[in-house]
Write a structure and sequence with these properties.
Blueprint: H1 8-22, H2 31-39, E1 51-53, E2 61-63, E3 72-80, E4 83-91, H3 102-110, E5 114-115, E6 120-121, H4 126-132, E7 140-151, E8 156-167, E9 171-173, H5 174-181, H6 189-192, H7 197-217, E10 227-233, E11 236-243, H8 247-269, E12 274-278, H9 285-293, H10 305-318, H11 323-334, E13 338-342, H12 369-383, H13 391-423, E14 431-440, E15 443-448, E16 454-459, E17 469-478, E18 483-488
Length: about 500
């Protein structure tokens, strides 16, 4: 049942809520959590104690146009002796969400905000995530600030973490800011009333490029996958809108990677445990080797991030139009990330795709529970207090967050596939060019090139493997189950 066009959003919302419940997620906040939110005072924090007053700096946020839960601000300080200081301010959610409180218990249940095409299920009540703990423009907010001193060649010379009072001077959007930086658009209006912000952003852009270049020298993978989300006209599903990666998205990503490394090393230096985000060496490296060989590129027999990065760079240069397809195949073969507990004296793997050893999520506490946990550990270290999480408890928490994130991804994929099935419902028998994105005993999956939706090959799948290009014909769709079935042609 596809429902009338006027009911598309409602149909997908029902599917999303059912999927959330089936996988053990809450879709509403508990009465105790809502009562706690109602008791929170709306007053702004005051500087003093460990909270340094940094409100005079030209802080800005850079995010999607419609983002309401703002987790981070950035600013650059004028370089001295070739070193630029980058400050990354992250919302201090822990200041209002005490560990073990009803809000915290609800957040621990889901561990993440779940973003479906039909509806967003926030980890924290909206009065917090979009107001009291969001770094909204022209509001004073408490924050943890990661201080990064970066040399001209992208080396991190020195780093520190502090607590501060900050004020967002300009709420900027990725696309319009990227257009301005590249000379393809006007200066965003929000920048015009902030003295020095334009020059500051150009300095931030230059530092981010240096950080990225140094990471790539060490073997960080430069991947570019196609991300699409459902676009509605009123409540009718109209199309899938492809979200392009751009210069400012890359800039923020570079700063967040650096900041997450700083927090991990800060906790390690204080003898504290931490939660790390890791991506292990790929188990299907042999298939990545085969893919590279199909373009006459030789990779070593054992996983090597630097060599893989060189292969990806060569494909981007040779065929930029189809580079996202190569990236997607590599992403599927790399496997997913996970959270692990890094206990003092123990050794944990690094992040293969980022080519970093120390990586602890800390930059999105409004929507990721591991980041909130990391903030509590940092604040305890800064205060000289004992670590609030230990040993087996942190190991169990890492496992719980990994499992919840995996389940959240499944919910998001299901709703996305249901939306895709809805979009293709009237195109049975049409043929499409596709890329194989999954091949295992349980089935073979492809992603269409246009529109960028994924489905299963139910006939003619024998011999296909990840990365193969193939022509398929649409056999059937099932919106309720998120099924799109194809047959291989030829």
């Amino acid at each position: 049942m596809n429902g009338s066009p006027a009911q598309h959003r409602q149909l997908l919302q029902r599917i999303a809520r059912r999927a959330m419940s089936e996988r053990g997620f809450r879709t509403e906040f508990s009465p105790d959590a809502l009562a706690q939110v109602a008791r929170l005072e709306g007053g702004e924090p005051q500087a003093g104690g460990r909270l340094r007053d940094l409100r005079e700096l030209p802080w800005c946020s850079i995010d999607n146009d419609d983002t309401r839960d703002i987790d981070q601000l950035t600013v650059a300080l004028t370089p001295a002796n070739g070193v630029t200081r980058i400050l990354v301010a992250i919302a201090d959610v822990d200041a209002l969400v005490e560990a073990g409180s009803p809000i915290d218990v609800d957040a621990h249940t889901n561990t993440t905000t779940v973003y479906t095409d039909a509806e967003i299920f926030p980890m924290l009540p909206e009065r917090l995530s979009t107001d009291l703990t969001s770094l909204n423009d022209e509001r004073d907010r408490a924050a943890l600030v990661m201080q990064l001193d970066v040399a001209e060649d992208g080396r991190l010379v020195e780093a520190d973490v502090l607590e501060a009072l900050v004020r967002n001077r300009a709420k900027l959007a990725y696309d319009s800011l990227a257009a301005w930086l590249e000379g393809d658009g006007p200066e965003p209006p929000a920048m015009r009333g902030v003295p020095g912000l334009a020059q500051n952003l150009r300095l931030q852009d230059a530092v981010a490029r240096a950080l990225a270049a140094r990471r790539h020298e060490r073997g960080a993978l430069d991947l570019q996958t196609v991300e699409a989300r459902a676009s509605f006209e009123l409540d009718r599903l109209a199309t899938f809108k492809v979200e392009e990666k751009n210069r400012t998205k890359q800039m923020i990503e570079d700063f967040m990677i650096a900041a997450n490394g700083v927090t991990a090393r800060f906790l390690e230096g204080r003898g504290f445990p931490s939660l790390r985000r890791v991506v292990r060496a790929p188990k299907r490296w042999n298939r990545i080797v085969e893919l590279a060989a199909s373009w006459s590129f030789s990779l070593p027999a054992e996983p090597d991030a630097r060599a893989l990065g060189e292969f990806l760079a060569s494909r981007r240069a040779a065929d930029p139009l189809r580079f996202p397809d190569v990236s997607l195949a590599v992403v599927k073969l790399l496997g997913s990330g996970e959270y692990v507990a890094d206990l003092p004296g123990a050794e944990v793997p690094g992040h293969f795709g980022l080519a970093v050893k120390d990586y602890g999520h800390s930059t999105a506490p409004n929507r990721r529970y591991p980041d909130l946990v990391t903030h509590r550990l940092i604040k305890a270290a800064l205060a000289g207090s004992p670590a609030p999480y230990h040993g087996d408890a942190l190991v169990a928490l890492a496992r719980h967050c990994t499992l919840r994130e995996d389940e959240a991804n499944k919910v998001e994929r299901l709703v996305h596939k249901s939306a895709a099935a809805l979009l293709l419902a009237d195109r049975r028998g049409d043929r499409f060019e596709a890329l194989v994105t999954g091949a295992a005993s349980k089935g073979t999956w492809v992603r269409l090139l246009r529109p960028p939706v994924e489905g299963r090959v139910i006939r003619g799948e024998r011999g296909l493997d990840v990365g193969d290009r193939v022509t398929v014909e649409l056999v059937s769709t099932d919106v309720e189950r998120g099924f799109i079935d194809f047959a291989r042609v030829g």
